[in-house]
Design brief:
With 120 residues, this protein is mainly beta. The protein has one helix at residues 5-15, and strands at residues 28-39, 42-51, 57-58, 61-67, 73-79, 90-91, 96-104, 112-118. The protein has a single domain (21-118), classed as Immunoglobulin-like, CATH 2.60.40.3230. The strands form 3 sheets. It has a 3-stranded antiparallel beta sheet, with no helix packed on it. Strands 5-4-8 form a 3-stranded antiparallel beta sheet, with no helix packed on it.
Length: 120
């Protein structure tokens, strides 16, 4: 009940708790994503996260799997907002959030990727 958030925040100050944004993974989707080689072993991952919820939602973690030509996972990273250089932990109601980060893959050959959202 988002309308009660101000009241709950006041109560939480008194009892030492905190109010976090709702977690509704089913209301979030990756609208688009892209993995581009910037040069050598450096790649840039970009994704647009969209909320279809009528309230602010917690931004989930991103499970990024980089694969080789045989579709084998060669690198797996869990990315959070801080990895994209962003602060906060929420996405507004019915908003989009563009996330972009550079990754160094070392000597591994990358042919594809997979992105999944999850709440830790």
């Amino acid at each position: 009940m988002p309308a009660l958030k101000p009241v709950v925040e006041v109560v939480c100050v008194m009892v030492d708790c905190r109010v976090e944004a709702a977690r509704q993974l089913q209301a979030l989707s990756v609208e688009s994503s892209e993995l581009v080689q910037l040069g050598g072993t450096v790649y840039q991952v970009t994704l647009v996260l969209r909320s279809r919820a009528d309230q602010e939602l917690a931004v989930p973690a991103i499970d990024l799997k980089l694969t080789n030509a045989r579709q084998e996972v060669v690198i797996r990273r869990v990315l959070r907002l801080s990895d994209f250089g962003l602060r906060g932990n929420a996405i507004g109601a019915r908003k989009e959030l563009t996330l972009q980060a550079a990754l160094n893959t070392g000597e591994r050959q990358i042919a594809g990727y997979n992105i999944e959202l999850f709440y830790p």
